[in-house]
Amino acid sequence: MTEAQDHAATVAARVQGLSSWHHDWTRLRVAVLGLGVTGFSVADTLVELGARVRVIFGAPDPDRERLLDVIGSERFSASDDAAQLADLIEFDPELVIVSPGYRPDHPLTEWAAGAGVTVWGDIELGWRLRDKTGRIADWICITGTNGKTTTTQLTAHMLAAGGLRVTPAGNIGTPVLDALRDPQGYDAIVVELSSFQLERLGAISPYASACLNFADDHLDWHGSAAAYWAAKAKVYAGTQVACIYNRTDAATERMVEEADVVEGARAISFGLDTPPPSGFGIVEGILVDRGFHAERRGEAYELVTIDELAERDLAAPHMVQNVLAAAALARSRGVEPAEIARAILSFEPDPHRTQRLGERAGVHWIDDSKATNAHAADASLRALHDVVWIVGGLLKGVDIDQLVAAHAHRLRGAVVIGVDREPVLAALRAHLGERPIIEIDASDASDATGSDDASGSVMGAAVSAAAGIAQPGDTVLLSPAAASMDQFESYADRGRQFQAAVAELG
To answer: Does the reported pTM lie above 0.85?
Structure first.
């Protein structure tokens, strides 16, 4: 071993030994890749711990850059990877923390791995720092192709109803590190995990975990369906008490079967059918728990009825599955059935997930902008008929033909937006026959409206086109089955613009 290799090994051993907020992080040279909400939370945390931090990023962000200067972090911005890599090498980091969007084969992370530098994601860093206060929270981790955010919110709402101090965090919007630095601490943190975060999860040990469902998504990022599945399956590794899985989804069941968990951890299923022992499901229109009943082989706890869910617009099949999964996670942490029932019946879903906007001229309008993949759009379409579908965006390498074929019989027509329009148009033309298909091009829409705001004109044109197709009794559904960043800032921005355009119809 050369002197340089020996030094690198010594540094790596020191870094791996840092597993507590109360360890000595001072003067550790840490490069943070990315200056989004996650990257800033990492920099802010490590500066507080006394590390020397340098944030390396692409797109300028004046507000966060000013905040980096205030907290005492170094920064470097360049639009091309080569300049960023040169700066990273010159900084000579002892640890690299990667924001979720960086692919495994990104030049900066590949250099770090090749140079023997330790590379973590923000979740692994958070797990190591979870003991800042004496009140160390249990982590309840949730992933899935669809329904993560709603289930995370539901689970946190149920735990709060049970008297726990709890917060949702992770991919839901609040970085885990921000939650962990709360001076009061938490009894539980419900952590929503994207496949990007799971890719660099590290060795954590959640109290309970769930993968809600699995379907192809982000194949352009992970490289294959097998790699995407392997990333999602990491959510169960090291689980202490309960692995919650979808018994109608063989992919999630296999994840649990192959998971290396803490001895004694139980597998608890959920589904829309009559549940087996150790399962949650539906019996004669009532959601029930047979997972945590002492006499579960012959009895079940009643939670809520489908009719009660319908009164709160929570009775769509995919939403019922979210409720069951959240109930199983909350029950694993000791929340009583009556407390769970109260939480369900007081829950308000986030905007842009099958959000009903009311009726215009006999036509119903639904904002499901959060359906950023085919699996989510499939769940929304299954609950409807006579649909004018607004679809399209960034497909992320996923073939949309099967989705269109499965729901062609429901469609009155379709309006196609986004940059990846050609595969969407091809699938619709193959399955819709003579029914109307309208393509909205950003430049055409801008010309038609006289607006310089391409994204706004796209949605305005799409809503106008959908209104022209729809007949009384139909539903216009924005459920793009694609990511939004081609023409909008986010799925929320896309949904807000849809709602504004619908409101302008009068």
So the answer is: no
